[in-house]
Amino acid sequence: MQILSGKEVAQHVYDTLTEEAEQFLEDFGYVPTLAVVLVGEDPASQSYVAGKKKACLSLGFGHKDYHLPADTSQEQLLDLIHQLNEDSSVHGILVQMPLPDGLDPDKVIQSISVEKDVDGFHPQSVGNLLIGNPGFVSCTPQGVMEILDYYHIATAGKHAVIVGRSNIVGKPMASLLVQKGRDATVTICHSKTKDLPSITRQADILIAAIGKPHFVTSDMVKEGTVVIDVGINRIEDASRKRGYRLVGDVDYDQVAPHCNAITPVPGGVGVMTIAMLMKNTMQAARQFAN
Length: 290
Ligand code: GUN
Fold this sequence. Notes:
By secondary structure, this protein is of the alpha/beta class. Helices cover 41% and strands 18% of the residues. The protein has 2 domains: 32-113, Rossmann fold, CATH 3.40.50.10860; 139-270, Rossmann fold, CATH 3.40.50.720. Guanine binds next to strand 4. This is Bifunctional protein FolD.
């Protein structure tokens, strides 16, 4: 059983990006710059946003932080995004999700300029991916592909089963895997799927993106499968300093012995998301420069 270390793959991505950022600065006289907008005080969102800032700093990327109160109006948020769309010193814009109640995430995402949509959430970015002409691709599924590539896990002709149909992970994951050149046969399962274990047991590659701790158990996987765990769930643990620990959507201890390869949590897909955001920010800056 091989452990697919997102940490190792992310480090490889960061090494490449550090060099690219230095070269970019030399060529163009400025650095790729990401604007991160956080509305409200959600602790998990605050921690994600801090991780994004840290990544920018470590790569020598520019970083602009906007922390707005939870009672920010839709109009105020859209005004800020319009400003950032027009700001030539900003190449990528990210609005941290979920947004507080009262703000419409679809309208907010649609207001971000497609050229700066480093999250890949804009309907135009999603459509471009679906027709096989990707611009910016959602970071988490892109991170999964990067892990598969790094470990030379072929997808052609394989049956990839994705559990979860979110716009951020499940659906773009399916689009990526089914694309020409990737050539997987893809099944998407969700909460209304009947007899889920009978389908997940058919998977050569099983991707768990449900958001429920330890949801995938050993009776749901066939021997020798590749398991990709996208889940990042906080569960209470009084023995930890923070009072919680992170677990995936897969019951790792139960499932891992049956796998050919598996991603751990933490240190698997999670760390790839920010690495791919940085890659997209580099791409946005390049497109702006050219
Ligand atoms: N919330 C959870 N994951 C993400 C992400 O990848 N991007 C944004 N903007 N918000 C998120």
